[in-house]
Specification:
Blueprint: E1 16-23, E2 26-33, E3 40-45, E4 48-52, H1 57-69, E5 78-82, H2 88-95, E6 101-106, H3 109-116, H4 121-129, E7 133-137, H5 140-146, E8 151-156, H6 176-185, E9 186-196, H7 201-209, E10 213-220, E11 228-234
Parallel strand pairs: 5-6, 5-8, 6-7, 8-9
Antiparallel strand pairs: 1-2, 2-3, 3-4, 9-11, 10-11
Protein name: Spermidine synthase
Keywords: Polyamine biosynthesis
Organism: Streptomyces aureoversilis
C-alpha cells in the first residue's frame, strides 16, 4: 500500500498532489486546492477530473431521490452505492436512519485508503463507522452480476455520465445487458439512480427499453454550463 505523502502545500501555490497511484484501471490522483477550511480535495483518474469536495448537492440527491421513490412503508430498505468517490453519497445515506443496509462498491484501493487513512475521512468517517455500512473493494459490474443479494436501491456514480465513462469497459453498465442486470439486482419496486454531469434523453430511452418504469431526471443547477442530473427508473413492483 502506498502511504499518503506528507502535505507539501505552500500558500499561493497551485493544486497539490497528495497521492498518486497506478491501479488496475490506470492512474488515480488525489489533489488539494486551497488551504484550511476552504481546502477542496479532488480525484483525477487517468487525467480526467472525476469529482471534488466543493459542493456535493447532486451526490446527495442521488441517495435522497432513490429513497423518496421507494414506498414509505418499506422497512429497512437496502442501498448499494456504486463508487465511493469523495464520500458525499455514503455520508448522506448514513445520515438517514431509514436505510437498513448500506453497501459501497469501490474498485480503487487508493480511494478507500484516502477515506480510511487520509483527508477524505473528514467527509466519510462517521458513515464508515456506522454498523450498517459495508465497503466492498471490487468492480461494480462484477458485483452486480454475482452478488447473492438484491437491493432496494442502486445509486451509481462511477463515471461522469452514461456517455462519458472513466474507462471503456464501464460502458457495459449502460448497455441493454448492463441495465437489465441492474433491474434484476433490484427488489420489486426497487429504484435505479444514476448520476450524470449532463442530462441525456438517450439514456432515459435506454432505461425505458430496459423495462424500467417511472423514468425521470432530476437536476441540480451548477455555476456554469449544463446542470448535474440524477436519472431515475423503477423496477415493476
Amino acid at each position: 500500500m502506498t502511504t499518503l505523502q506528507r502535505d507539501p502545500y505552500t500558500t499561493g501555490g497551485g493544486p497539490v498532489t497528495l497521492d498518486r497511484r497506478e491501479g488496475p484501471y490506470g492512474e488515480v490522483v488525489l489533489r488539494r486546492r486551497g488551504a484550511g477550511d476552504g481546502a477542496v480535495h479532488e480525484i483525477i483518474a487517468n487525467g480526467c477530473f472525476l469529482m471534488d469536495t466543493s459542493d456535493g448537492r447532486s451526490e446527495r440527491l442521488l441517495v435522497d431521490a432513490a429513497l423518496a421513490a421507494l414506498p414509505a412503508d418499506r422497512p429497512g430498505p437496502s442501498v448499494l452505492i456504486g463508487g465511493l468517490g469523495v464520500g458525499f453519497s455514503l455520508a448522506r445515506a448514513a445520515e438517514e436512519p431509514r436505510w437498513g443496509r448500506i453497501t459501497v462498491v469501490e474498485r480503487e484501493r487508493a480511494v478507500i485508503d484516502w477515506h480510511r487513512a487520509g483527508p477524505l475521512g473528514a467527509v466519510s468517517a462517521r458513515a464508515l463507522a456506522d454498523p450498517r455500512t459495508e465497503v466492498a473493494e471490487g468492480d461494480l459490474l462484477h458485483h452486480l452480476r454475482t452478488a447473492p443479494v438484491r437491493y432496494d436501491a442502486l445509486c451509481l456514480d462511477i463515471d461522469n455520465g452514461p456517455g462519458w465513462t472513466v474507462t471503456e469497459d464501464n460502458g457495459g453498465l449502460y448497455s441493454p445487458a448492463g441495465l437489465a442486470g441492474c433491474r434484476e439486482r433490484l427488489t420489486p419496486g426497487g429504484v435505479l439512480a444514476v448520476w450524470s454531469a449532463r442530462p441525456s434523453a438517450e439514456f432515459e430511452g435506454a432505461l425505458r427499453n430496459a423495462g424500467f418504469e417511472g423514468v425521470r431526471t432530476e437536476e441540480i443547477a451548477v455555476a456554469r454550463g449544463v446542470p448535474d442530473v440524477v436519472h431515475l427508473g423503477q423496477r415493476a413492483a
